[in-house]
Amino acid sequence: MNMDNLDQDVIRFFEPFFEKSPTGFEFSHRYLSGKEKEVWTNNVCVKEVASGIWKACNHFAPSVTDLFIASACLDILCFTHFFPHYVDNLLSVAFASIGYLPCKEYIRELIYEFPNAKIHLIAENSLIGKIFDCKVALWSRSIDSKFRMSKELIEIEFGSQSLVLPIEKFSLNYFEVISGKRFAIRTHKPVKGFLNFSHLFTAL
Fold this sequence. Notes:
By secondary structure, the chain is α/β, with parallel strands linked by helices.
């Protein structure tokens, strides 16, 4: 399927937050020194954003109860296609894309803007996506981190601590269990066999 097959409730919810062009949907991201656009054509995301912030919210920010964060707008729209109840305007929700190379300033901005929201993460079902989950979770507690891979292990430095975990078991949940930290963050992954929600959508 392509973007023309998106659930119409999804289109209506996000329409104020993107531009339609002859090439497709364009999502303007603000970044530290300018602006960048993510572009989705009928078949593929032809332009991704490395680092920037895009937001979609129809409610008074302090009243937002759930904040969904992803690395790409494309994945947000495809995720809500499968879970359209999240774009019910009776719910007080917000969505944000922060690029595939995010920075802690964007997380701080989102937490400040939506102080009462539970964080949900929409990231790839891959090692990169799991690192995204952990980095954002740690940033939500103002903790910087570094990740290093060596063969079948991943080393995580966070604050004054460090852990070495097997890559095959690594996830935000496993990191919480081993480190003893609890972030109260929910992660959303597509069914097994699909890298992300946009791949799942286009496979239908």
